[in-house]
């Protein structure tokens, strides 16, 4: 019989993910122990409210409201509380006490990652965070380890399960945004404050982590361009479908050349985009996530799976717990973060994208030529135009007839495309601009 040493796990948070981590640790403890080479013991679960009903039936004596006390004597601290404080302070205490830390807290890492990874390096501890991006999908380890010998050039990902669920329900079931969000929240996909999901903040934090790992540089959260899906309407989703697209919230991380200097730089942005129906990302339904990685030698890779949900995310957390336990058994400092480059992170204006603009114009001779002139003058070139006559303010009201134009552009600098839209807005030929969305993955 093998004599294992015992490793104590302190679990901070017993909510959607934490309760499933606790259940699986208790149910599969023997198996996880033999995989780790150490006996893994759940020492306790810190929560705010001892009497709150949990998703999993867990022994009451494991629960405590004293997170600081629980950390003392723990070998591995699993932080699943979310938010910045007290999560940051507790992780600092855990690392300083020599414990390894496992977290799913992308919000915290996107803001305080550099100082926490530095601290972990200084004290010879390890900070694991596979659950922080893409839920159950292995994406942190592949970027950090498997692709460490390659050069990643671009990441295009659906990294927020809640917004993908909501957009999918709007597309497939005809739901309104609000009703679909209520279901996503009920299913445990949304953050404690779902504005983090709908506003694109959660995806922006994940984009900062992905870009930092992929390009070996620090990508501050505030340098990630962010737009959420709060203004996406059923009308836009329906129009997208008619035109052969689906609306997705994308995180796009790219290594680019600075358009002004030609120097190497990085761009990270999160926004809703039109994705062609034939693109594999269009087939990512429900709360699933998918991350496309393009690398110089490997070519195109795709990582796909459950991006949110308690038990699914618990899988990633437990993988990190086993890694941490193995490190305790083997000794040594663990894997260092590879942030050594110091690349500038450029604003969205330096990104190259395509626009899809729906506008109402006066249905008169010369208008189309005027519109084309505004695009050309601002450095954007039109790829497709679809026109339908008799727009919303038609001749029936005694006004001039209007036409609706749906224009798709070729790829151009975001700065040129945004300037074109401003010029269209100011033009007497344009009655109104109905929608502007970027096209990606075409
Ligand atoms: N729900 C999901 O699908 C996913 C969540 N995550 C991340 O995992 C973390 C946890 O998420 P959920 O389980 O969904 O959250 P939750 O809101 O369901 O659970 C949070 C838990 O932390 C406890 N807690 C919060 N503040 C505390 C404090 N000050 N002291 C003691 N306990 C405290 C709460 O009592 C609760 O038990 C978050 O960082 C989230 O972003 C990551 C991937 C997927
Ligand atoms: N709220 C997040 C949970 C996982 O990170 C999401 O919806 O993706
Ligand atoms: Na993951």
Automatic annotation (TrEMBL):
One of its GO terms (biological process) is threonine biosynthetic process. Residues 356-438 form the ACT domain. It is an enzyme of class 1 (oxidoreductase). PROSITE patterns: ACT, HOMOSER_DHGENASE. Keywords: Amino-acid biosynthesis, Methionine biosynthesis, NADP, Oxidoreductase, Sodium, Threonine biosynthesis. Catalyzes the conversion of L-aspartate-beta-semialdehyde (L-Asa) to L-homoserine (L-Hse), the third step in the biosynthesis of threonine and methionine from aspartate. Pfam families: ACT, Homoserine_dh, NAD_binding_3. It catalyses: L-homoserine + NAD(+) = L-aspartate 4-semialdehyde + NADH + H(+); L-homoserine + NADP(+) = L-aspartate 4-semialdehyde + NADPH + H(+). Its EC number is 1.1.1.3. Transmembrane segments: none annotated. This is Homoserine dehydrogenase. One of its GO terms (molecular function) is NADP binding. Gene3D superfamilies: 3.30.70.260, Dihydrodipicolinate Reductase, domain 2, NAD(P)-binding Rossmann-like Domain. Belongs to the homoserine dehydrogenase family.
């Amino acid at each position: 019989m093998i004599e294992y040493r015992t490793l104590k796990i302190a679990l901070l948070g017993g909510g959607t993910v934490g309760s499933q981590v606790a259940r699986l640790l208790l149910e599969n403890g023997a198996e996880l122990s033999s995989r780790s080479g150490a006996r893994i013991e759940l020492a306790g679960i810190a929560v705010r409210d001892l009497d709150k009903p949990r998703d999993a039936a867990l022994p009451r004596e494991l629960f405590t409201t004293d997170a600081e006390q629980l950390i003392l004597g723990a070998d591995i601290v699993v932080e699943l509380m979310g938010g910045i404080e007290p999560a940051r302070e507790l992780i600092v205490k855990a690392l300083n006490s020599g414990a390894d830390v496992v977290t799913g807290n992308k919000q915290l890492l996107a803001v305080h990652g550099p100082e926490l990874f530095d601290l972990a390096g200084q004290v010879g501890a390890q900070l694991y965070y596979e659950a922080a991006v893409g839920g159950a999908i292995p994406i942190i380890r592949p970027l950090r380890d498997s692709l460490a010998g390659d050069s990643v050039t671009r990441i295009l990902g659906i990294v927020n399960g809640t917004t993908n669920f909501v957009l999918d329900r709007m597309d497939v079931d005809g739901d309104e945004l609000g009703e679909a969000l209520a279901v996503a929240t009920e299913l445990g996909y949304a953050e404690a404050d779902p504005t983090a999901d709908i506003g694109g903040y959660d995806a922006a934090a994940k984009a900062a982590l992905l870009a930092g790992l992929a390009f070996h540089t620090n990508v501050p959260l505030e340098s990630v361009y962010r737009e959420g899906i709060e203004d996406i309407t059923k009308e836009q989703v329906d129009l997208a479908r008619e035109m052969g697209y689906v609306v997705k919230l994308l995180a796009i991380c790219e290594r680019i050349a600075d358009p002004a200097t030609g120097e190497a730089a990085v761009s990270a942005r999160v926004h809703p985009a039109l994705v062609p129906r034939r693109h594999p990302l269009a087939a990512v339904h429900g709360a699933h996530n998918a991350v496309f990685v393009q690398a110089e030698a490997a070519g195109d890779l795709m990582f796909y799976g459950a991006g949110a949900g308690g038990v699914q995310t618990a899988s990633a957390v437990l993988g990190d717990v086993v890694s941490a336990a193995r490190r305790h058994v083997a000794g040594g400092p663990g894997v260092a973060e590879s942030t050594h480059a110091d690349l500038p992170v450029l604003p969205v204006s330096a990104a190259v994208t395509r626009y899809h603009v729906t506008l109402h114009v006066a249905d008169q001779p010369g208008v189309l030529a005027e519109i084309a002139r505004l695009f050309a003058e601002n450095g954007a070139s039109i790829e497709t135009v679809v026109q339908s006559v008799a727009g919303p303010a038609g001749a029936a009201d005694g006004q001039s007839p209007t036409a609706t134009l749906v224009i798709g552009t070729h790829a151009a600098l975001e700065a040129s495309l945004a300037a074109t839209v401003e010029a269209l807005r100011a033009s007497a030929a344009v009655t109104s601009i109905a929608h502007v969305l970027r096209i990606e993955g075409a």
